[in-house]
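Replying to the earlier thread about multi-chain prediction with a worked example.

Input:
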Amino acid sequence: MTEIIIEILRLTIIVGIIFAGILVILIWINDQTKKISYLRLFIQIVSVPVIFLGLIIGPFGLPQFPPVGNAPRDAVVGTNIFGAPFPDGLSVPVLACYYPSGRTVTCPIWQIQAYIFPFWNTGLGFGWGVYYTTHGLERLAIVFGLVIVMAIVLGRFFCGWICPFGLYMDLMTRLRKTFKKRYWKLSEGVNTGLRQLRYVIIAAFLILSFVFGSQAIIGLQLVPGTQSGEYVYDYFSAPFCQVCPMKPLCVLVESASGFMDPASVFSQNTGLLYEAGYYVTSLNVAVLALVTIGAFAFRRFWCRICPLGGLISLFNRFPPFKWFSVVRLNKIEEKCTKCGICKRVCPPQVTEVYEEKGGDVTSSGCILCFRCVEMCPYEGCLEIRVAGKPIYKSRNWLEGLE
Amino acid sequence: MITAGIDMGTQSVKVAILKDGEILSSGFTFCGFKPKEAAEQAFKEALRKANLSFDNVEHVTATGAGADKAINFDSTISMMGADAQAGAYFFPSARTIIDVGAEEARAVSCDENGNMLNFVLNSRCAAGAGTFIEAMARALEVKLEELGPLSLKAEKASPINASCVIFAESDVVSLIHRQESKPEIARAIYDAMADRISSMVRRLGIKPHVALIGGVAKDVGFVTSLKRKLGTELLIPKEPVFGGSVGAALTAAKRIG
Amino acid sequence: MATEFEGKIKSTPEMSPKEIEEMRSTMESVSRKVIAENIERMKKTWPNRPKTMQYFDEISNFFGKRLEEIRAQKEADKKIIGYSCMFAPIELILAADAIPVRIDSGWYDAAKLGDTIVAVEVCPVIRSTIGTQMVNLSPYLELSDAIIISLTCDGRTKLSEILRDDKTVWTMCPPRMKDSPHSRKLWVEEVKAIKEKIEDLTGTEITRKRLRSAIELTQRASKAFRRFQKIRKGNPVIMGRDAMLVNQTSMWDDIKRWTQKTEELCDELKNRIAQKKWACPPDTPRVMVTGTPMIWPDSWKIPNLIEEANPQGVLVVDELCSGDRLLYDPVGVDEWTMSDMMDAVAERYLLASTCPCFTSEHGNDDRINWLLDRIKEYRVDGVIYYVLRGCILYAMEYARIKRILESIDVPVYYLDTEYTREDVGQMKTRVEAFLEMLETRVAL
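Result:
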């Protein structure tokens, strides 16, 4: 009994600290051009342990307090939903990598690829002897359903406020600012091209997942090595994860902080140069290095090409999903002087907020970081609307100057 | 309730005295160099005709170009405001009032209560006002009051350039030398002026019905040309030259009540 | 061949120093009289003027305290950079430790002198500026070490040539369609070019630190400017002419001190609002003026008429590049790096401008949005569309703007005038009739 009370107390304290932090930021910071940015940074930092590392929910499989029994996380995540244990963690529409130990939340990109592959496998979960009774189709539906609902309702708000990889890139930007270096810009044509490329990437990994799992799905090896136990089967069944920059970042961070055993991590790879592996491949690391440099030079570099962002956009930007989208960026035409500040300060270099005359100006590249609203110096011009109601409007930030 | 309106025009002063919405009397004097004296004289004349003394008058409103040089006035109103009041008073269905005076022409839109809704003026040039006709009459060596009937005899108009009184005058002289008929020249003069005034009115927008007041409204030649150019009938009061002063007197009445 | 004549044959004829001095001193004494008279008239309409207005009255005198200050600074080797129009980057001038002054002329008599050089159809402001240059009437123009002219209209394009006969003139060319990325790029390059010129002239490098303090200075000026404007949204606690004077003095005053004094004025006005001490009755017709610039002192002709008319009107807001547009748009800096600051400064001048010299695929929608927003926020009863004869840009926008304003039931009157005192009578007739109209509408 007392242990449950302790758990509840722990939860309350953590929630209380978070609220206190939010209040402190909202009240203490007078500079209107920085307030929301700091708030967002705080939420991003808080999201990492709370959601991602399972601070509240606890790591996979390990009981928090042995006398109590299984961690509350297992109670939540391992629970029967629709009559069967919920597979592989909660899918959240951010880059929350599946691979490190933890697995409270899971990247939907992995889940989609994985479930295409053992789509036809009945019963067996993906490794670790966990048996799920839901079938491939049901699992896919549950995953997709959850992600779609979150994508429709909150859209790329996850990208701006919760995604840990977004935090990583924002920290790179802050690092660059301390060196007083200017940022680079991609030309509008290239930026738009990258946005379209996202959908191509999604299509590519879906097709590759199918190809690599063809043996299990249709009983035919389209590509050698895709038999159970063979090279491709073992290491490439989730093709996107071999190039994703989030995987090595998570693995490195968790290895360094002791949540994962470094020895076991680096033993699960083939060859001297880690060409392929469960946890980290050389390709991964190369992409991470590239994206890190990109994030230093450009702002929110990965977001322009992130397929998960593309996936969310698919369910947010186009009708009929658009009609149910809850968080929207809105512009009041007469207040806008076309001063161009919104376009200039936008990290992923979205231009729709400037080009569109008025009304709903949310776009598929927008990560809803609210920077444009924060920096717009005309009262009531840009506003964030939740379910049609403005919750945050641009204001004359000159008044906050000392 | 007895009120009076003084219209301090550029050429003449007109006074009208109203009692309870009826015109009692009017007075008229040419200004010359002494507008104040002219105003006094016109006022005295109007009072005499109405058998009243100055103390009987409860409120005097002045209007016109020289309104602030009037005497014994309690308030002022712009010519445009006076025109609107006068037009609606004489013709309750009038919504566009044109006032052509000696040196200025105006057009005013009003509502049924005589409130001025919009106005337009001629562009600071006397070629669209009474002095133009006077100059042309001189050039044709015809008496001012005969020019109008003369023009009605013409079937067409000779071409003249009316962008400026001076140019028009020399145009007329050369037309006479070419032995163009005087009626045709007269008609051309009126057509040119009506042209200027109708384009001014069109800038305002013509809303029926259209009334015409001001001294020039008595000139039958001008009225015919204007009707033709505007393409509408014109409602003209019996004594159009007192339009401004009647309007001012009506305003005075409103200001007491 | 043409270069043979450059520098030798000027646009303006040779005048003897005696002639120049005679004309100049006559015009100066007329100007002093007009300045004093305008201030008297403002005081007469509003006997209870706030104390702080005295400061602005002093600064409004072109031949007084501010001139002495600038002269003293020039002796101390500081550079004076004059500018025409509104696109010269003040922040760069301040960052190089130079003094910015606007040299567009508001003197009627000088326009008559300008008539002898260029046709009378040319914009009166341009003619007047030429006239002041001929006789050294404007002390700020005379003291300028360089002049930045923005080639926004035809008049200014040729003015730059005429002024170049006697002064160092730098030109900046804002692109007429300012929306496209290549226009932005062009303008940023223009600003960078001017930066180098300013650095060469002053011998001071515009470092990141200096530019940052200059931007922070103008941001605070914008803050005070906006605070002042916000006060005019409510019942009239300040008369329009006085507000216009406050706005205009920012064009040549010391920016830091101007900011401080404007904040003081706002504090005084705030007290008056609490005490309900209105400058004129709250139901006075609220008038907005939009159009060509009205530059102190002679161009107070129309505002004088509006606020002294019977019935009285009050100017609550204007859309003038000599008025409520001056400091309204702030420089919005994202990261205080040199490149972002330069981008921010360049964009602030180009993109937010509502001048009709710009167009886009949607016309000059910036100006229309500005007007519509102000009409709503300031509860404007009527709009006076003020055009100095010769300005084709403002004149041509009238047709559409008139229809738009009529469709939202706001009366608008086209008032075209010149740099002359002779049409005051005619202007008075028109202004008074318009105000009568507004008064009737307000009462209804």
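Chain A has two domains: 72-304, 326-400.

Feel free to reuse this layout for your own posts.
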